[in-house]
Amino acid sequence: MIKIALDAMGGDFAPKEQVEGAMLAIKNIDDIEITLYGRKEEIEKYLKNSERINIVDCRDVIPMGEHNPVHAIRSMTDSSMVKAFRATADKEHDVVVTCGPTQAVVVGAHVIIHRMEGFRRPALAPIIPSLTTGQTVILDCGANLEVRPDQLVQQAQYAVVYSKEVLGKENPSVGLLNIGTEEGKGRDFENECYKALQESGLNFYGNVETKDILEPPTDILISDGFTTNMVVKCMEGTAKSMGKMLKQNLMRGFFGKIGALLSKKNLDRFKKQINPDEVAGGMIFGLKMPLIKAHGSSQSYAVFCALRTAASVVRKDVNNKVQQALLSEKPLGE
Amino acid sequence: MIKIALDAMGGDFAPKEQVEGAMLAIKNIDDIEITLYGRKEEIEKYLKNSERINIVDCRDVIPMGEHNPVHAIRSMTDSSMVKAFRATADKEHDVVVTCGPTQAVVVGAHVIIHRMEGFRRPALAPIIPSLTTGQTVILDCGANLEVRPDQLVQQAQYAVVYSKEVLGKENPSVGLLNIGTEEGKGRDFENECYKALQESGLNFYGNVETKDILEPPTDILISDGFTTNMVVKCMEGTAKSMGKMLKQNLMRGFFGKIGALLSKKNLDRFKKQINPDEVAGGMIFGLKMPLIKAHGSSQSYAVFCALRTAASVVRKDVNNKVQQALLSEKPLGE
Questions:
Q1: Would you say residue B281 lies in a domain?
Q2: Are A179 and B233 inside 8 Å of each other by CB?
């Protein structure tokens, strides 16, 4: 049995969507059991199935708009997030899932779960849809605003193991996000990373422009935590604003209204395709225990996807595979 | 008469779209005359109206995929871009418009047209659509990958004059692109820029996240040339990929096809809204003479828009207004 801890109070619609997502996961995945961390009475309002689901009562909740994550993680010891992380660090669970506020998750990951031995800078790595390769692992989405090239190479190495084991990609390719495709483009940082990735032994493709973010030539896209965060938020924002513009335009005029109704089913399919809920939870690469961080706005289906990813990471022994490579004779990225 | 120089050979569809755009501008704008720089015989194939349009014959063309822009600008002295820039620097024209390759344009701007006195780092500033404010000036789109905060403040100041005079905005507001809205977010660079903008006397709003790129709370969005370039290309790429996904989805099934046909007019309006062609040419802020750079993929309507912007910049005396502010007792950004 794969033991998953779920922070049931983290997320814009917690604990309802978290509890419903957990029940969905239990129904669809046979080899997991889930422990829900949160206010028992609130969780029980939505929990209709206690098979392979336990509750650990926690009185506190780290709010979604938390401005002082370091203080929150250190002081709110009875919060659902801190208790779920702590129990996972103590190996009561194999993996932990949360939709809580990103910065608190990143701080909690470092302070409570700790870095994997030899892994210098853990990275936040969500998965985004790709028209060319199905799914793209994109990192670092903001765990470290600035990194060194050797640290970025380690992150890329984790992404390769993850893409292979969890996403089933053969010989996953790595692209460096940059302002142009030619070698030599970008800042000193991009040029140093280019060389380091070339020498890493990874399947390095070269530079990839952000105009290809949804149709990249690679399985993995990487940059520093500031840049990737700016780019991913821009992609999400553009998709959202375009949805609004599209709706306004499709509804204009009589024929437009009829047309929009007739193609509603297709439009809904389109919306689902660009919906962040459809995206499996992101993972923090490089911790002692695996941690999946899903969108704060996740609804039950997105929580289910995150739990499914969590199970897969454990089943495929991703963390140990990276850890072994780190401790082997050929250290990663060096 | 406003005298505009147009690099008729720069652009993916040159000179056809450039010549047709020029004719469209002459037809719609009374107080301009245009000089087309390029291969005379190729231009004359498309030119059906010589009223207020002259040709200066140039034998060379800087190709769109130019990899060595510094060498190209220095050696291709008989190219349409170099000759149009040179004549504008010599004040034969009031403004120059090109759809040529961006890096060559940026190099040519520095080497031939030169920086405005006291202006430290010219910036590339396109205009993008905005659901909240109609149009957003976004900079620096790649003229300088890295800048100092005082240089960024000068660029913001130019953007304010431009937004006021050319786009007709009252008291234009400035937003700093960042990974979060709270003060203190981002790298050291963002924090230093935040303080410098606060002290600049400009209408500084604070940080703006890239998820709001198409619905910003401000008239102007600013960051360094690396970051803004990554973000703008991401926005364009996301819009393009979403268009593809939408088309695939709308055309599925019988009712989908009927629906798509019925709402074709509305879909076309939507496409027009997100089409970079609809966007007026970007400008390089901070040169001795104004320079408008439109998309390489511009078609005649986009060339017309760029020429209209060029005329407006001259009519409103934007460059002199910024120059006077720079030379006045209250130097910009200091």
A1: no
A2: yes
- Owner of token pair 């030619």: A182
Query: Does residue A157 sit in the same domain as residue A252?
Result: yes
A313 plus A261 within the same structural domain: no
Q: Which candidate in A233, A236, A297 is best for mutational testing of the B interface (most B CBs within 10 A)?
A: A233
- Using a CB-CB cut-off of 8 Å, the residues of chain A touching B237 are 209-215
pLDDT tens column, B83-140: 999 999 999 999 999 999 988 999 999 999 999 999 999 999 998 888 888 889 999 9
User: Do A131 and A216 share a structural domain?
Assistant: yes
Joined tokens for residue A38: 């949160």
Q: Count H helices, E strands: chain A?
A: 12, 12
**Domain ends where: A235, A262, A279?**
A279
Supply the pLDDT for residue B260: 67
Same domain, B76 and B192: no
Beta bridge partners of B178: B209
Are residues B269 and B130 part of one domain? Answer: yes
Residue B328 covered by a domain: yes
Q: What is the CATH number of the domain that holds B27?
A: 3.40.718.10
Chain A residues near residue B236 by CB distance under 8 angstroms: 211
Instruction: Residue window 112-141, chain B: list those with CB within 8 Å of chain A.
Output: 131
Q: How far apart are CA A116 and CA B226, in angstroms?
A: 32
Which pLDDT score, from 0 to 100, does residue B331 have?
A: 46
A23, A130: one domain: no
- φ, ψ dihedrals at B146, nearest 5°: -130, 140
d(CA B119, CA B123): 10
In whole angstroms, what is the distance from residue B35 CA to residue B37 CA? 6
Pick left, alpha or beta for residue B164 (phi over 0 → left; psi -120 to 50 → alpha; otherwise beta).
alpha
**Token pair 């990471």 in the structure block, residue:** A313
- pLDDT tens readout for residues A23-38: 999 999 999 999 999 9
Q: Which residues of A touch B211 (CB under 8 A)?
A: 233-234, 236-237, 240
Length of chain B: 334
Q: How far apart are alpha carbons B51 and A326 in whole angstroms?
A: 72
Q: Using alpha carbons only, how large is chain A's radius of gyration in Å? A: 20
pLDDT in tens, A241-275: 887 877 776 666 666 666 666 666 666 666 666 55
Q: Is the pLDDT of residue A92 over 60?
A: yes
Q: How many domains does chain B have?
A: 2
CA B234-B238-B240 angle, 5° bins: 120
What is the residue range of A198's domain?
120-279
Q: Is A247 on the interface with B (CB under 8 A)?
A: no
**N-terminal to C-terminal alpha carbon distance within chain B:** 36
Unique residue bearing structure tokens 């959202």:
A240
As a whole number of angstroms, the distance between CA A26 and CA A51 comes to 8
